[in-house]
Structure formats: C-alpha cells, structure tokens
Amino acid sequence: MATNRTFTMIKPDAVANGHIGNILAMITNGGFKIVSLKLTQLTVADAQAFYAVHAARPFYGELVEFMSRGPIVAAILEKDNAVEDFRTLIGATNPAEAAEGTIRKAYATSIGENAVHGSDSDENAAIEGAFHFAGREQF
Q1: Does the pLDDT value for residue 2 go beyond 60?
Q2: Structural domain harbouring 23
Q3: Residue stretches of the annotated binding site for ATP
C-alpha cells in the first residue's frame, strides 16, 4: 500500500560536513517515511549515467566530478504528495534564495554544493530510486 514516493541523495558535501543525521531528522520531521536507505559512493561512470540528462550542459563535468568525489546517502522516501512536498523541504538550488527552515538553507554551501538532491517528478523518482536500489531493497 505505497503512497507517493520520491528519491533523494545527501550529496558528498553534506556527508563530508557531518550533516547526515540532521538532514535525515529534517526529512522524518517533515513527515516522510524512509523506505530505503544506504551510504554508498558513485563512480564517475555512475554519476555520468545518473546525470546523463545534463550531459550537454556546461556544468556537467563539474557535477560528475563533485558527485563522485565522496560518499553519498541515497534514500527513497514515502509520503502523500512526496515529490512536491520534498522539493519544498529542500528549498531553492541556491541556498541564498532558499527559504528558512529548508535543508539547503541550513546545510548547502553554494549552488553547486547544495547538500541534497530531490526528484523533480514522480516518473524521475521511480527511475532514480531504481538506479540506486534493487527491488529487494525497497520496502
């Protein structure tokens, strides 16, 4: 009886800065149930595949390098209206423009190192979750 699901990653900057616990607390306090969770590291090839949609953009190389430089925390979250509600919780890509009380306002250091990823649609949430978690790892 799944409700709506979304996918998130706590990015290498936030992991390196010791924010995993605080970010997970914000997620659960925001009403999300964590249904899959792992600490892992993307290879360059993994990051290239995950962000292939951005391959033609000028920031793609930096994004791949950043996302493969250290561990991440990948998670599938569940809540009614999960994608939209999570996008609200994480805040604007630019932490200077993010609303108070959002994850990026609290933990992002720049547009590029913005602490967390959040799926932008139900379809992408399913694709991104399946990229990181086998079916037996999704509860």
Answers
A1: no
A2: 3-135
A3: 11, 59, 87, 93, 104, 114
- Write out the E strands in the chain: 5-10, 33-40, 72-78, 116-118
Catalytic residue among 19, 54, 117, 132: 117
Q: How distant, in Å, are the alpha carbons of 11, 22, 31, 49, 99 from that of 128?
A: 14, 23, 21, 11, 26
Angle 126-14-129 (CA atoms, 0-180°, nearest 5)? 10
CATH number of 22's domain: 3.30.70.141
Active site residue 54: no
pTM: 0.93
* Domain count of the fold of the chain: 1
Helix (H, G, I), strand (E, B) or coil at 53: helix
CA atoms within a 13 Å half-sphere pointing along the CA-CB vector of 108: 25
Mean pLDDT, rounded, for 11-40: 98
Contact (CB, 8 A) for 45 and 112:
no
For the stretch 61-110, pLDDT in tens is 999 999 999 999 999 999 999 999 999 999 999 999 999 999 999 999 99
